[in-house]
Amino acid sequence: MAKHPTTERSGSDSLEPIDLTALEAVTGGRISRSSQPDPAVLAGIKQLGELIAAVGQQLVAARQQGPAQLMQMMQQMMQIRGGR
Questions:
Q1: Between the N and C ends of the chain, which has fewer C-beta atoms within 10 Å?
Q2: Domain boundaries, the chain
Q3: How does pLDDT run across 10-23, given as a tens digit for each residue?
Q4: CA-CA distances (angstroms) from residue 41 to 32, 34, 37, 59?
Q5: How far apart, in whole angstroms, are the C-alpha atoms of residue 17 and residue 34?
Q6: 40 DSSP assignment
């Protein structure tokens, strides 16, 4: 198993500071956490809530129509039988 080159360094190597003028053109850095949630995430959560509400309403409507349709079909069958 080969050793990583950094593990073979001697303790005599020390880190040298970087000159601040060399860092003037550097942009970026660590990502800082915002105290406010991302607006895109909030919009997505809102859309998801609206979608869930719409599905729930459709489910309730389908459940209410089911027994009514069954009763209507039974009435039609009874009318057909009674008409003979």
A1: N
A2: 38-84
A3: 556 788 888 888 77
A4: 17, 13, 7, 27
A5: 30
A6: H
